[in-house]
Amino acid sequence: MTQMTGAKMVVQALKDQGVEVIFGYPGGAVLPIYDELFMQNDIQHILVRHEQGAVHMAEGYARSTGKPGVVLVTSGPGATNAVTGITDALMDSIPLVVLTGQVPTFMVGNDAFQEADTVGITRPCTKHNWLVKETDRLAHTIHQAFHVATSGRPGPVLVDIPKDVQFATGSYVPPREAGNAHYQPQVKGDREMITRLVEAMETAERPIFYTGGGVINSGDAATQLLRELVEATGFPITSTLMGLGAYPASGKNWLGMLGMHGLYEANLAMHDCDLMINIGARFDDRITGRVADFSPGSRKAHIDIDPSSINKTIRVDMPIIGDVAHVLEDMLRIWKSRGRKINKEGLARWWAQIAEWRAVECLRYRNSDTVIKPQYALQRLEALTRHRADRYICTEVGQHQMWAAQFLGFEAPNRWMTSGGLGTMGYGLPASIGVQIAHPEALVINVAGEGSWLMNMQEMGTAIQYRTPVKQFILNNERLGMVRQWQSLLHGNRYSHSWSEALPDFVKLAEAFGCKGIRCSDPADLDDAIAEMLAYDGPVIFDCLVEKHEDCFPMIPSGRAHNDMLLAADAEAFKQGAALV
Amino acid sequence: MAAALNIQKGTSKHSAYDLRDPNSDVIERHTLAVIVDNEPGVLARVIGLFSGRGYNIDSLTVAEVDHTGHTSRITIVTVGTPAVIEQIKAQLGRIVPVHEVHDLTVEGPSVERELALFKVAGAGEKRVESLRLADIFRANVVDSTLESFVFEITGTPQKVDAFAELMRPLGLVEMARTGIAALSRGA
């Protein structure tokens, strides 16, 4: 057994786990580890400006590569600052390994300087966490942390390492000798239940695939199998916000995103279907609307690796616990071996019905010659970047996020980084840096709102320092747009604290950070301005001044049934109470 | 028989429990046995799960049961609708140091026992009566002064409740209960 200090062990364990990049911020309780980082060149350390930024960067890195993201922060405030990002990763099932420094073991519980009960604080927002009290346990614990973060339903884990454990010497164990204890989630689905699902697929008149982030987390095999299954059966497919890209937006069976701001045809098809096949999604409340009225006439199958997702909110007829790729492989094989049957007549009628819903053109908006509509800005961004296979999009949270999901098309998985479950404003800028670190040559754009963007704008310093040419495409309406929209629709136009009276000059801000700033307010100039952003070799802050009072439609008002959608044309009547029955 | 009860095939793979209406609003009481790694924080994870997700705990006991394997057994009595009970079990199963979750209420017959200590103070006929009742309930006297007894009683929670009710008018001043320990019957 190799003897080494705890600090060296941390770096060795990361190397042995294949880690190339970590995101972090030094402080008293992690200095021994930073000293070890200084003396090696295998692992790149990205110095952030705030620990929350480190976690979101690691999320962007993880989501765009399929590998776990690694974070290193100090005790106390370092750890508490990381909590929002860790919770975000838990909600969106992003694999992260967060290493925190802790005061020495003999000081724990003493209210020492920069002490916080990190494992206590992060217990509900991690998949699992550990406080390491002996250096001999450290290597094993870090290897175990990687195993737990990446197996089953992925998620963030945290290892809290007191400073004396970092200084002390102990024996190092490599990953293959560490063992993975009993934590081995089931990946193969129940064959009998899969066969039942295949039988249902053979006769269904109005089937639909409802896919989620689980497909992307399962990996490239799952994406390939999903595409094969959809093409072979000819069933329509919709996806949650987290699952965009698993099936290509240009695919002929694509209905678009579903949910609160999903497409009319996607939500109506979910409501009226007779067979719903949920693959790696979790019946989130933004999808179901009022649970009692959710897709009342359908048989439902649910494929999920997490048993606690099954029957949590929606009772399903065919629960299948397993990894998406494994289950889809079995589904395809069984379906093929039974003669590739589908209900052709039923399916033809179903597509005819969907065509009628599509004809509503739910994303239509009134464009303008004088002011840039946010939808138009995204349509132009899409038109000018769609050809780039290496395009990665991040978002912040709010109206711009929903418009981006509606108007940008994703052809491949791992190209779309957004905060879905927790809805964390301030996610997008650091996430875009994490993506760019993983893909230095790619085009990485953060579609942002000015409100969200300001929440973590200090990370522009990180972008400059590491020469990550991230494009910050800010749809600036000088409002907290989604808050304003709800106040408009549901609170009598009383815009309580939903605008900022003192926004910075984003172009000057870009100059102050040392990057390029572009402002555009005229629709006629937009294409040239976007082209200038794309051509610039370095980070850009693009201040796109858009219509201040645009609402995001379609919309399922909170608490309504999911087929009770508000389209742009209905909004005035809704506001006046006509639709509020 | 399955058809008569309107059971959907496949929903009853493991136990008769799943034959009941999953959408029932009836509140049920279930005793769960959870086998966990005996490591720091494991009880906090279990309790945090119940408080964080709004589940109820009627009784909870925990102790190490396998010293060499470092496993503890947590016995939890909880109440909820069938859907909530199922969700509680799934959520418990998701905790990394949890090895097994057993629902003793549906996995067949089981025995439940609780230990309680009662301090009863008094003199004269009440004192004699408390001793007589303790004998009927097979409670032991584990401490005695001229003015008081401490009784030790073991039994089902119902038996302990019944004993408590009888002791109350006879001078019950303090009581301590361990919560329920439970095992399935048979091998």
TrEMBL record, chain A:
Gene3D superfamilies: 3.40.50.970, TPP-binding domain (3.40.50.1220). The keyword Transferase applies. Its EC number is 2.2.1.6. Keywords: Amino-acid biosynthesis, Branched-chain amino acid biosynthesis, Magnesium, Metal-binding, Thiamine pyrophosphate, Transferase. It catalyses: 2 pyruvate + H(+) = (2S)-2-acetolactate + CO2. Pfam families: TPP_enzyme_C, TPP_enzyme_M, TPP_enzyme_N. Binds 1 thiamine pyrophosphate per subunit. Binds 1 Mg(2+) ion per subunit. One of its GO terms (cellular component) is acetolactate synthase complex. Its cofactor is thiamine diphosphate; Mg(2+). One of its GO terms (biological process) is L-valine biosynthetic process. Residues 194-330 form the Thiamine pyrophosphate enzyme central domain. Residues 397-544 form the Thiamine pyrophosphate enzyme TPP-binding domain. Pathway: Amino-acid biosynthesis; L-valine biosynthesis; L-valine from pyruvate: step 1/4; Amino-acid biosynthesis; L-isoleucine biosynthesis; L-isoleucine from 2-oxobutanoate: step 1/4. GO terms for molecular function: acetolactate synthase activity; flavin adenine dinucleotide binding; magnesium ion binding; thiamine pyrophosphate binding. Residues 4-119 form the Thiamine pyrophosphate enzyme N-terminal TPP-binding domain. InterPro entries: Acetolactate_synth_lsu, AHAS_TPP, DHS-like_NAD/FAD-binding_dom, THDP-binding, Thiamin_PyroP_enz_cen_dom, Thiamin_PyroP_enz_TPP-bd_dom, TPP_enz, TPP_enzyme_TPP-bd. The keyword Nucleotide-binding does not apply. Belongs to the TPP enzyme family. This is Acetolactate synthase. It comes from Rhodovulum steppense.
Automatic annotation (TrEMBL), chain B:
Transmembrane segments: none annotated. It catalyses: 2 pyruvate + H(+) = (2S)-2-acetolactate + CO2. SUPFAM superfamilies: ACT-like (SSF55021). One of its GO terms (biological process) is isoleucine biosynthetic process. Residues 31-106 form the ACT domain. Pathway: Amino-acid biosynthesis; L-valine biosynthesis; L-valine from pyruvate: step 1/4; Amino-acid biosynthesis; L-isoleucine biosynthesis; L-isoleucine from 2-oxobutanoate: step 1/4. It is an enzyme of class 2 (transferase). Keywords: Amino-acid biosynthesis, Branched-chain amino acid biosynthesis, Transferase. GO terms for molecular function: acetolactate synthase activity; acetolactate synthase regulator activity. InterPro entries: Acetalactate_synth_ssu (IPR004789), Acetolactate_synth/TF_NikR_C (IPR027271), Acetolactate_synth_ssu_C (IPR019455), ACT-like_dom_sf (IPR045865), ACT_dom (IPR002912), AHAS_ACT (IPR039557), AHAS_small-like_ACT (IPR054480). GO terms for cellular component: cytosol. It comes from the Bacteria. Its EC number is 2.2.1.6. Catalyzes the conversion of 2 pyruvate molecules into acetolactate in the first common step of the biosynthetic pathway of the branched-amino acids such as leucine, isoleucine, and valine. Belongs to the acetolactate synthase small subunit family. Dimer of large and small chains. NCBIfam families: acolac_sm (TIGR00119), PRK11895.1 (NF008864). This is Acetolactate synthase small subunit. It comes from Rhodovulum steppense. The lineage of its organism: Bacteria, Pseudomonadati, Pseudomonadota, Alphaproteobacteria, Rhodobacterales.
